[in-house]
Structure formats: structure tokens, C-alpha cells
Automatic annotation (TrEMBL):
This is Flagellar biosynthesis protein. Pfam families: Flagellar_put (PF12611). InterPro entries: Flagellar_put (IPR013367). Keywords: Cell projection, Cilium, Flagellum. The lineage of its organism: Bacteria, Bacillati, Bacillota, Bacilli, Bacillales. Residues 10-31 are annotated as: Disordered.
């Protein structure tokens, strides 16, 4: 009953010449994780973060989920730069990078012109 437990690979991975198994596994895991994370993650540019802070805009998890969904819809239509109108704020988003470029509160939206966008999504 004192047999050692051995853990082995069921399917050996092909390793490029000169690379160790740990380097290959680490790189493969990091690349796939980063690509999946990059596709799902919502990012804020430095400018957008500054505007959110200056204008006292705080986004809760439900709002972030809705923004992500709106970006998905814009991407499905081929949008590149989109205006998201949400409650009492507007966000300009780079759809491909899933990055909020700037944010405007309701008071600042009046008499404002949004340029360099190719779509608008109304988020309810």
C-alpha cells in the first residue's frame, strides 16, 4: 500500500527543438488565455478613465455587462468606432479593441457633436 503515485501525460505534446516542456506549456496557455481574455475584456483608455473620474461617472457590473453586449452587437454589424448612448451618458468605443475611448455625462451631451464614429447603439 506504499506504492508511489505517478502522474503522467496521457498524450505527449510535440515540443519544438530547443524548448522545454514547461516553456511550451506556459507559452501556449498564456497565448490562448490572453486571446480569450482580450476578446471578452472591456478596457478603458487613459483619457476615458480621466473623463469618468472628472465627471463623477461610476459604472456598476450590470452597466459594464450591457456595454459589453452593445459592443458585441456593434461588432456583429461591422462597426469600428461606435457611440453608445446609455441612460444619462454617452461612450465612444473602439469596437475592435473593446476599448472605451471617452465618456460624456448627460449634462455635457447637450449641444455636443460626436465625430469619427460609424455607428450608434442605444443601450437600455
Amino acid at each position: 500500500m506504499n506504492d508511489p503515485i505517478r502522474v503522467g501525460q496521457l498524450y505527449p505534446a510535440k515540443i519544438p527543438p530547443g524548448a522545454s516542456r514547461s516553456q511550451t506549456a506556459s507559452a501556449a496557455g498564456r497565448d490562448s488565455f490572453q486571446s480569450v481574455l482580450g476578446e471578452q475584456l472591456l478596457k478603458f483608455s487613459g483619457h476615458a478613465s480621466k473623463r469618468l473620474e472628472q465627471r463623477g461617472i461610476e459604472l456598476n457590473s450590470e452597466q459594464l455587462r450591457k456595454i459589453g453586449s452593445a459592443i458585441d452587437k456593434a461588432a456583429a454589424k461591422g462597426s469600428k468606432e461606435s457611440l453608445l448612448l446609455m441612460q444619462d451618458m454617452a461612450l465612444i468605443v473602439n469596437v475592435r479593441n473593446r476599448t472605451v475611448v471617452t465618456a460624456v455625462d448627460g449634462g455635457s451631451m447637450k449641444d455636443n457633436v460626436f465625430t469619427q464614429i460609424d455607428s450608434a447603439v442605444i443601450v437600455s
